[in-house]
């Protein structure tokens, strides 16, 4: 039996809210009027992934100065951040020691725990409890002290997980006390992060949280110092992956709860800007597009837990579908596949952008355009990124690539650097870790050729489109007759992929089989919508809810997507900063759970944060459980920053 309570915090008394979002390309900041919800000022600064704190501080300073508000006018500063998500995906967290209590030797091979551990040390101890919260074995405290002293110098944090600790947390809390007597390094207990069973998966969640604590503290400290410099005394809040806000002190202890906060902020900001509660929200960026279905202003949480970087966690996050396609997705010829154009998931710098800072790029495009034979690497350009020369090569192939580019600071054509499969693999690795940069033809370039995007000079895009158009399909036929034709193909291919991503999200929401999205009837229906072709058979597919599209490129692609899906399109004002608006307008919202089990007829046990309590009447157990839930929720809400609730 479970009792859950959801309570929302009241809004701050001051008139304006600041929201900040650290995206892959830009860090956005907005000032919103808390009484009307209107955006009073907005700004964008380039995101530096090596120093997110500096990006957030710059954006905060710009938005305060630009809005001409005083520090006293600001009632709340809240951020959504990619820090936790990126650190897990890139394996950039700090080393942490895992202490397991009461698990058998096979537990490490379940729930993805062995993969998540990597080279981090593990301490396995006797102890643990049964599913009814009864102690199975006494906790071996002496072994714990000795083992912690042995590994303390190798780690920056500790994670503790006990068998059935969600039914009785005594052993986890005792282990935490011992570790704190020995070390000043932070400790994460798994029972504080999830009330669910499945010890190995809970261990993964606790371990990842421990690795993120120092990184998150660094970001929050930088923001707090910036706020102090600006004279801001408003609370600092952070958006969680479920779309709720919590205080900086809460996140310092539980940083893993901020994974996927960007998509959550986007979903909430989109419906706020659009002024509707029921919609399909699609947020397109440079690398990916996130899709969520919202009903009554809220997106459904994924009860399976968020999966990040291949790690399955027990963290609640909104049910968001991500497609690896955006304005900066690399477009290449793929003659052995259907369709021939491959778009994404790799992100590259658009030719129109790279051409402004890399002198050799335009010369390369012109030279390749005059060559008698087209090559699959035409239009691709490499360079060594700032700081890349300090990276230590791991192989001879790495040395080859880096040495070639070190001699030409502005970069070189891809085929002058890569002349073997080993070099290609090395370049892919170096691109993945951020040592190299690469330019190539993208949907952004295609939109410039078609005149739909006019931010940059178009010559580089036109040359790149011409190089792609003259490549051959599997039958040896040109992909397109000219740059405009190939750019139109790219535009329509992107729209088709986005439509398929939206259908996948709606299929999931309606509990329909996901495999059917790519089935022949669905594909045929979208194809007929795209070409306005008819036949004897009438085949149609669409969505009932309106489509709210946000992100800087939204207006370029989603009119066609809405036409394909036979629905209304809303692109609200300020859609390019929807994530920051979502961060600014969120609420504090927490849930707690107290479990009552019945080991036998007439016996009931209440499992809260302390030792289980036994009752012989269900009514007494329920009354105690509800009181324990209220007390626990009150403590959580206070830590999360809710002054009243």
From TrEMBL:
One of its GO terms (cellular component) is cytosol. Pfam families: Hydant_A_N, Hydantoinase_A. One of its GO terms (molecular function) is 5-oxoprolinase (ATP-hydrolyzing) activity. GO terms for biological process: glutathione metabolic process. Transmembrane segments: none annotated. Residues 202-502 form the Hydantoinase A/oxoprolinase domain. This is Hydantoinase/oxoprolinase N-terminal domain-containing protein.
């Amino acid at each position: 039996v479970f009792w859950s309570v959801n309570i929302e915090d009241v809004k701050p008394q001051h008139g304006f809210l600041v929201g900040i979002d650290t995206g892959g390309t830009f860090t956005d900041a907005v000032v919103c009027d808390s009484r009307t919800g209107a955006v009073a000022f907005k700004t964008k600064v380039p995101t530096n992934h090596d120093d997110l704190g500096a990006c957030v501080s710059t954006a905060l300073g710009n938005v305060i100065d630009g809005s001409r508000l005083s520090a006293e006018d600001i009632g709340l500063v809240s951020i959504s951040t990619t820090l936790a998500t990126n650190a897990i995906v890139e394996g950039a967290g700090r080393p942490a020691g895992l202490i397991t209590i009461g698990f058998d030797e096979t537990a490490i091979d379940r729930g993805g725990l062995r993969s998540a551990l990597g080279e981090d040390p593990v301490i396995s101890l006797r102890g643990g409890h049964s599913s009814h919260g009864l102690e199975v074995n006494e906790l071996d405290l002496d072994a714990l002290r000795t083992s912690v002293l042995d590994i303390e110098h190798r780690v920056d944090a500790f994670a503790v997980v006990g068998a059935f600790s969600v039914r009785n947390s005594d052993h986890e809390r005792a282990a935490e006390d011992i570790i704190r007597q020995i070390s000043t390094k932070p400790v994460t207990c798994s029972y504080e992060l999830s009330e669910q069973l499945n010890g190995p998966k809970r261990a993964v969640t606790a371990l990842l949280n421990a690795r993120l604590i120092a990184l998150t503290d660094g970001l929050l400290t930088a923001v707090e110092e910036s706020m102090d410099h600006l004279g801001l005394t408003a609370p600092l809040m952070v958006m969680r992956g479920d779309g709720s806000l919590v205080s900086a002190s809460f996140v310092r202890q539980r940083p893993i709860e901020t994974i996927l906060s960007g998509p959550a902020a986007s979903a909430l900001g989109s419906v706020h800007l659009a002024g509707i509660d029921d919609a399909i929200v699609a947020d397109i960026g440079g690398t990916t597009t996130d899709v969520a279905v919202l009903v009554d202003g809220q997106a459904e949480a994924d009860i399976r837990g968020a999966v990040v970087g291949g790690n399955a966690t027990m963290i609640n996050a909104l049910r968001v579908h991500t497609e690896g396609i955006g304005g900066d997705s690399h477009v290449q010829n793929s003659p052995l596949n259907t369709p021939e154009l491959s778009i994404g998931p790799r992100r590259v710098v658009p030719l129109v952008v790279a051409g402004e800072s890399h002198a050799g790029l335009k010369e390369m495009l012109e030279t390749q355009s005059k060559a008698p034979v087209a090559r699959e690497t035409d239009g691709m350009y490499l360079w060594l990124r700032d700081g890349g020369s300090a990276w230590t090569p791991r192989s001879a192939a790495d040395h080859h690539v880096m040495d070639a580019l070190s001699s030409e600071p502005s970069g070189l054509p891809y085929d002058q650097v890569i002349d073997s499969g080993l070099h290609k693999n090395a370049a892919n690795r170096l691109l993945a870790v951020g040592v190299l940069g690469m330019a190539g033809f993208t949907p952004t370039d295609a939109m410039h050729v078609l005149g739909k995007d006019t931010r940059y000079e178009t010559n580089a895009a036109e040359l790149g489109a011409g190089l792609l158009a003259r490549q051959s399909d599997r039958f040896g036929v040109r992909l397109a007759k000219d740059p405009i034709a190939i750019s139109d193909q790219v535009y329509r291919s992107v729209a088709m992929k986005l439509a398929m991503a939206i259908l996948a999200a709606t299929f999931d929401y309606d509990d329909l089989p996901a495999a059917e999205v790519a089935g022949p009837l669905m594909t045929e229906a979208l194809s007929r919508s795209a070409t306005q072709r008819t036949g004897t058979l009438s085949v149609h597919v669409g969505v009932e809810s309106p489509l709210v599209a946000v992100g800087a490129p939204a207006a370029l692609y989603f009119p066609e997507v809405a036409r394909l899906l036979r629905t209304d399109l809303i692109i609200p004002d300020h859609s390019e900063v929807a994530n920051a608006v979502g961060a600014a307008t969120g609420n504090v919202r927490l849930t707690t759970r107290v479990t009552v089990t019945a080991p036998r007829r007439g016996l009931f046990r209440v499992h809260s944060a302390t030792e289980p309590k036994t009752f012989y009447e269900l009514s007494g157990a329920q009354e105690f459980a509800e009181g324990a839930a209220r007390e626990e929720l009150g403590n959580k809400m206070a830590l999360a920053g809710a002054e009243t609730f």
